[in-house]
Structure formats: C-alpha cells, structure tokens
Design goal:
Layout lengths: L2 H10 L1 H21 L4 E9 L11 H17 L3 H11 L5 H5 L2 E5 L5 E8 L2 H17 L4 E2 L4 H29 L5 H32 L2 E6 L12 H26 L6 H8 L3 E6 L14 H4 L4 H16 L7 E6 L6 H14 L4 E5 L7 H5 L7 H5 L6 H4 L1 E2 L5 E4 L8 H5 L2 H13 L2 E5 L8 H6 L4 E7 L5 H13 L4 E9 L8 H18 L30 H5 L54
Parallel strand pairs: 4-5, 6-13, 7-11, 7-12, 8-10, 8-11, 12-13
Antiparallel strand pairs: 1-3, 1-5, 2-3, 9-10
Helix pairs in contact: 2-9, 4-6, 7-8, 12-13
Length: 615
C-alpha cells in the first residue's frame, strides 16, 4: 500500500488516534499527580591530591586515582557503611532498603566520585548523602585529604634537598667557568659532582614517597545540600511521554483492527480480489435513516449530489463496457444483504430514464422486496402475478413514476417457490416482452450468497453489476459472490463500490461535487412542489406512459401504439391489450407514511440542502 493510502487510513482512524493520545496523556498526568515526591541530593569527592599551580601532574598518580575512585564507588555502598548511616541518623529501615535509595558513580576518565541519595524530603536526602561520605572517610579503607606527620616531614626534606642541590650546582658552575683551574680546584669539582649525584637520588626518593601518599587521599569538594525541587515525578515530562505512548498504542490498535478486519474498503481491494473493473464509487452521504426510503433516490431528489454523479458515472461506464451491442437488460446483484443493491438499481433506473432511455425497473427479489416501498407503490400485483398467468396490459402490470420514461414492475405477492419461478420459461417470456416495450430493463435481485435467485437471473440478462459495500462486504463473501456468477456464465460488467467515504476519493471529485451540490440541489427541489411519485396508471389506456413522455427517441408510431394494441409476443402472450380480460390495477395510494411530512421534502432556503442517506 502506497503512502497516499496510508495517509488516508490514518485520517480515517484520526478519532481513535486523538482519543488514545488524550487518554495516555491524561492517565500519565493523573498518576504523576498522586505519586509522592522524591528529592535527590549528592556529594562530590576528589580522589587523590589536586595538582599545585606551576607543578606538572604525575600521569601515574592520575591513573592510580582513577582506579581508586572506582573502588571507592563500590566501598561506599557496602552494607557496613549503610549500617553506620542508619545508626547515625536513626533511620527505621534495613541496610538493604537504604541502599536502594543510594548509589555512587565514578567517571572512567575522572578522579571525581559522586554519592547520590534519594528520600521523601529534601533535608533527609542531603543528610543521607553526607552521612555516607562521612562513614566512608571514617572507614579504614580511605585516607582523608589532610596532611599527616609523615607527609609534612617528606615535604620539609624535599625543600631542604632542593636547596642543597641548588647550592652544589652553583659551585659546580663556578668551577667549570674557570679555564686555569689548579689541582685543588679540579679535586673539589670532582667531589661536588659526586655529591650532586647523591642529592639527585635522594630527591627522587622523596618525590616517590610524596606522590604515593597523595593518590589515596579523599577530599570533599561539594557537600550535599537540600534540593529546592523534587526530582520525581516530573509531571510535564510524564504527561508528554504518556501522550506519545497513547499515540503509538492507538496507531497500533488501528492497524491491528485493520489487519483483523477483512472487509473491502478501497477500489484497489475490489479490483485485486475479484479481477473485475470498477464501474464507479458511490459516496456515503449523511442523512437521517429514519426518513422515508424515497429520500435515498439521489438521482431524482438531489441531482447535483456526489451520489447522483456517481450513479451517472456508473451509467456511462456500463454503456462503454457493453461494447458495440447495447445493454438491454441489466441485473444488479450483491454478495450479502445490506450492500445497497436495491437503492443502486433504483437510482440507475432513474439515471437511464433521465438520459432518454425508456426503462422498466423490475423487483425480482421475491423474498424481501423493497422497491414498492422505495417508490411508494402498491404491491398487490406484479412480477409474481404475471408468472402465475394473469393477463394484463403493460400499463396495468407496471406503475408510472414522476420520472418520464421510467416504469416500475413490483414483485407482487411473495410466492412459495421463487427460485423455480425465476428459472422458468415464463420469466424468460416476461423479460422478452418487457424488452419489446422499453429500451432497458433493470432488475433488482436477492443476495447471491443467500439464495440462488440472483445467479439464475444473471444467466437471463445482458449484463450484471456486482455491488460491494465499503467497510461491510467481507473478502470471502465477495469472492463467493463472484464465483457464483462465473459458474452460471454471467456477463459481469464490473463492480460498484457503495458507501465510500470522501477521504477515499483521491481525485477530489467528491469535494468538487460538494462545492456545487448545495445550490444545484436546492434549485432542483424548488422547481416543482408536486408529489414525487404519481398514482398507478389504470388499464383503460387513457394515460399512455406518463402522457407519452416516456417514449424513446426514434421509436415509430406503430411501436408507440403497441402500448395499447397488438399482442406483445406471438408465442406466449403475458401482457394483453384487452382491457376486459386484463386484471385491473389495484386502486390505492402509497402506504401511510408514519412521518407526517409530505413525500417530497419541503422548501428550504437556498443556503442549505439536505443530502440523502447512504445509497
């Protein structure tokens, strides 16, 4: 997955990430606030003697002092030292408990030793640190940094030997400067040179004694003082770290959920999994799902909405996918229920009718039909009654709508054997005679994975569209639905991804339609305030397909008169032209709407515009 999809996924998981970050930061803040404060104080010691000004430091002495500082760091944390501190300060704890709050550090390239103590109060931390240093200096392992008698004697001898050496050297220089020395002076020069050798040997011995004693000295250079603030907890730092941990945890949870979630989410998922071309994407639009179903007809009520443009995009792709032979019958199927196939079929039928093609929308879902509720039509007769052998006219069998050129054939009463009826020759005859009357037949069907009805219908039509719900259709269900269509040799034109979020749109088309959609929708809704759906046409033939507005361009007069006279098929007549033998259409209005609002949304100011629920 490329960076663009990763960013889109993180944007979709932004609420979880924000909540995780806030929860982590808040938890760290609350925990840090209730923790008792801890104070830290330290004492610094110098191992060995500091170099005197004007005197070069002895490298061997430095090495010895550095090694001794490591040794003293271990000695200061011995239980014996801790026991002495407990007795001195009257602490109520064991040496092991005390040593958990004390540690000593000695740098590898330095002769400094730092003893650090932690306690619940600032004064106690300073007292413990100083007490440990005092116990270390009092132990037999260390020598305090104060001159001893031996060191004093050594220093006095060094001064005397250095003075004597200087005197002898001056005498030797004076004799060497003479060019005419006597024998006595020559003898004196030899004696002085021998004396100089002895003095230098004595000086070297005294210097070695002095450096050996200085390397073991311990001098307190920075005693512990009570700190002004607590060392822990650090509330600001802990809050930031808690927020970062919450952020990482939220991102990890989001990716884990995505890993465990096997639903289809992107167009690439559809194409890579099914191998089918993507005919289009229908954006998920906000709206109250409790409103009447006809508000989901985006192509009719909201022609400038992103959903309506998406259905027109699918219509165009279907026309191009059919090649030279136009698609006359189109099946809309889905793998599982609830993927929006009925809404998709209805909006596609409206889109085709708006494009000037006479269209008949057939509800072939003989198990859970919905199209009659969507259009507010009666369902006492329809496809099932036609297959049962009823003789009726095209106008009586189908219902007119407010869309010129669109008629609806509802499912009719539910039969006990829908699969057998849809696979019968009678269904083929009905489909053939419908194609004699209209340019396109759009069929809604049951889910592929639930029953075999859709697979049977797919073998009777020119093309099939597979509807996939983004974030709902599982990968296994989609593959099984595709396989069911392929087993019966269906001509699957492609897939339609329904319920897409705007963040999934990489080209910015949804944002473009949203920019222009509000004004366009308001204008379209204010053109006509009459009811959206007309009453069913009666069999008398006085109303001819919405006053003849539904005829397709180029249809002959004989073809138009065929709506009222002449048999539809010479082999098996399903729809007759005799009104006396035709079963009259049931009089009635659409079912009572529990919502007291009119079927068509009321007028609204132009600055606002309602959008349909998800298709």
């Amino acid at each position: 997955m490329d960076l663009r999809h990763q960013l889109a996924f993180l944007r979709s998981a932004l609420p979880l990430i924000v909540i995780g970050t806030l929860v982590g930061a808040l938890a760290a803040y609350l925990v840090s606030s209730v923790l008792p404060p801890t104070y830290q104080s330290d004492t610094t010691l110098l191992v060995g003697q500091a170099a005197n000004p004007g005197t070069a430091a002895d490298y061997n002495q430095l090495l010895i002092s550095q090694r001794l500082s490591q040794t003293y760091a271990q000695l200061v944390t011995l239980p014996e030292i801790a026991s002495g501190v407990i007795k001195k300060l009257n602490l109520s704890m064991t040496p092991e408990e005390l040593l958990k709050h004390v540690h000593a550090d000695a740098a590898l390239d330095s002769t400094l030793l730092t003893v650090t103590a932690e306690a619940g109060s600032a004064d106690e931390a300073a007292k413990i640190a100083n007490a440990f240093v005092a116990e270390l200096l009092a132990s037999p392992f260390a020598e305090q940094g104060t001159p001893t008698e031996i060191e004093t004697l050594v220093q006095e001898d060094l001064l005397a030997v250095r003075a004597q050496t200087q005197q002898v050297q001056d005498q030797i220089d004076a004799l060497v400067a003479k060019t005419d020395r006597t024998d006595a002076e020559e003898q004196r020069l030899a004696n002085l040179q021998a004396q100089m050798v002895g003095l230098r040997s004595t000086l070297a011995t005294l210097l070695s004694l002095s450096t050996g004693s200085n390397a073991n000295l311990l001098t307190v250079v920075d005693p512990a003082i009570p700190p002004s603030s607590a060392s822990s907890p650090k509330i600001p730092l802990n809050t930031v770290l808690g927020g970062l941990l919450g952020l990482l945890a939220a991102v990890g949870i989001a990716y884990t959920i995505r890993r465990l979630d096997d639903t289809i989410k992107t167009p690439d998922d559809v194409e890579s999994l099914t191998g089918l071309p993507l005919l289009g994407m229908i954006v998920r639009m906000p709206g109250d799902k409790a409103r009447p179903l006809h508000y989901r007809l985006a192509t009719l009520l909201y022609p400038r909405s992103p959903a309506a443009e998406g259905f027109r995009h699918v219509r165009t792709n279907v026309d191009f996918a059919s090649g030279e032979a136009p698609i006359r019958s189109l099946l809309v199927a889905s793998a599982v229920p609830g993927e929006g196939k009925t809404i998709t079929a209805s909006n596609l039928a409206v889109a085709y009718a708006q494009a000037g093609r006479t269209t008949c929308l057939v509800d072939a879902d003989l198990r859970r039909p919905t199209i009659h509720e969507l259009f507010g039509l009666p369902n006492d007769h329809g496809l099932s009654t036609l297959m049962a052998g009823d003789k009726t006219t095209f106008e009586s069998a189908t219902h007119a709508t407010d869309v010129p050129g669109l008629r609806v054939l509802t499912s009719g009463p539910l039969p006990p054997n829908p699969a057998e009826l849809l696979a019968s020759a009678r269904m083929r005859a009905i489909l053939a005679e419908l194609l004699e009357r209209v340019d396109l037949v759009v069929i809604d069907s049951p889910p592929l994975q639930a029953v075999t009805d859709a697979a049977v219908l797919s073998s009777l039509v020119d093309g099939t569209i597979l509807v996939v719900a983004a974030g709902k259709t599982r990968r296994g269900s989609l593959v099984r639905g595709r396989d069911a269509l392929q087993r019966v040799g269906a001509n699957v034109l492609g897939a339609l991804l329904n319920g897409v979020s705007e963040g999934m749109d990489s080209g910015g088309a949804f944002a473009y339609f949203g920019y222009y959609g509000a004004a366009g929708e308001t204008a379209a809704l204010e053109v006509d305030a009459s009811p959206v759906f007309a009453a069913p046409l009666v069999a008398s033939g006085k109303q001819d397909h919405a006053a003849g507005n539904g005829r397709s361009p180029g249809r002959s007069a004989a073809g138009v008169s065929g709506y009222q006279s002449g048999p539809l098929s010479t082999n098996a007549t399903v729809l007759t032209d005799d009104a006396s033998t035709a079963q009259p259409a049931a009089e009635g209005r659409p079912p009572d709407d529990p919502d007291p609002a009119p079927a068509r949304p009321p007028r609204r100011p132009r600055s606002t515009g309602r959008k349909p629920t998800s298709a």
